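Hello,

Our lab assistant flagged a job as stuck in the queue for most of the afternoon. It eventually completed. Since we weren't sure the result was trustworthy after the delay, we are filing this so someone can double-check. Below is the sequence as submitted and the structure that was eventually returned. Let us know if re-running is recommended.
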Amino acid sequence: MPTHVAAEAHGDEIGALLAFLEAQRGGLRRAVLGLTDEQANQRPSASELSLAGLVKHVAETEQGWVETAQERPHSIERTQETWHLSFQLEDGETVAGVLKFWDDVARRTEEFVRSVPSLNDTFPLPEAPWFPKDARQSMRWLLLHLIEETARHAGHADIIRESLDGRTAFGLVDEERQAREGQA
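-- returned structure --
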């Protein structure tokens, strides 16, 4: 999972934006590194956020935005009454399962984005009080929004992880690197 993105190494704007998105995904994935489901479900602050819930929420959100851009119905439909379920593991869900789901979402996101003719192509935004009626956005906006959303929650995850066991993002990056080098 990259932590530093050298944009020129990714060939084009799409590659660079996807690399930045993957770097932010990595921050969230690292936040659950080495935790049990029970630990990842803990809420160590006044907030209702947990690491497991953040990972699930970001995965569902990414999938929902890509389905919106594809002008397809959402495969996971959330209402005002069920929105909170996107922030918590439900019966039978595990962190490992949610991470696998997110890996599949990330793969589909990349396939879709690479299939569009231009980042200037647009799609209709969903009907919501915060979007103007009949608003459209570009594929570039979609990628930037996914980066923004994921980065926001990666920051939350850093704070929650440090609150759980004192481990920081930099320490987790080093642990991940050491584990990779040990497997090589």
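-- support follow-up --
The delay was a queue issue, not a problem with the job. The result is valid. Residues 108 and 179 are 27 Å apart (CA to CA). The beta strands are 122-124, 136-138.
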